[in-house]
Sequence to fold (386 residues):
Amino acid sequence: MGRLAQEMDSENRQFGSGWISGMLSIVLGVVGLGTVLCLWFPQLLTVPEIHTLYSEQVVGLIRLVLHFVLIAAFVFGILSITLRHSKTLGFAGIAIVLVAAAMGGSRASRHMTGETDMYFGLDFFLLNLILLGTIFIPIERLFKKNDQPIFRDDWREDLLYFFISSLFVQSLTYMSLTPSLQLVKGTGWATGFREMVASQPLVVQFFEIMFVTDFVQYWFHRLFHEIPWLWKFHAVHHSAQKMDWVAGSRMHVFEIVLLRAFTTVPMYFMGYSESALYAYIFFVYLFSVFVHSNLRFHFGFMQYILCTPRFHHWHHGVEKESININYAVHFPILDRVFGTYHMPGEEWPIGYGISGHPVPRGYFSQFKYPFQKQTKTVHTHPDSDS
Fold:
């Protein structure tokens, strides 16, 4: 695994070196193997809420695409072996394809019967990876702000965060929604009010949810910057030194649970309809990826109405001017009202991360980081060193 990791991070990536074909072989092979596993164990590895998408026709299409994905992964593996001095990437990709083929490939059938109360969101991860990658990788290449490769430094680390938060979607959702559901259960006196809220037009509900959740997230976000022990958790998110569509996935699981718990309370207490809730959840998922993305757009007057990549990039900036600014997720007016707005002219931050970069690298080291006694305090206040 060490040799494979070294090859993945190799600087010898130019066209014709076999690195690109080797990485494509591994990525396509992993997607193919993951799909085969979902076909084997649908009760255990797929999210029940999206089972309605998997009609017989859709599953048939998935099998057809899977067939060509595995073929492509194998071909790219052979190409990498042919072109590259080190054969590690090519052989790794081919090995993954062979495992998927041995499990039945596109003809894989269910190997688990009966129902289970527990599930993992492997299909959720694969669908999001394909959807978001298809949308953001091309536009980041065409309109990139910073000249960085798709597989930039720490990309595997951020992708692991993306994978884990998707895989454990059931447990994270349960922990996040429990406070909201208990609150609704204990406030039956507000049923009439909730019915009135849910009867509003869908568009009205959607924008109400945007504003209500943004107000809550603004203060939640600000507290995680200004309270030292909370900052240790949020520092993991700010440790990313490159910004792109996958960088926003880097977030400590403790913060994920608390953030979702606090933001869902007003949504459920107010009684917004299920359609409005799902529409907002889909929107905020894409929007969160968007504001972290490596895009140079300025958006004209819209940047004063909605948060943009430049607005949020300043929040992640490494320079002193970036400390404790731009907390809003949707509406910059909240930062203007509460005195934390910062958008200097047409400028962008010079870099990203935390001054001194005290947060260790690696998922498990970062998971432990907030619980460890710090030899050097990480400051985030304007009068601090970082």
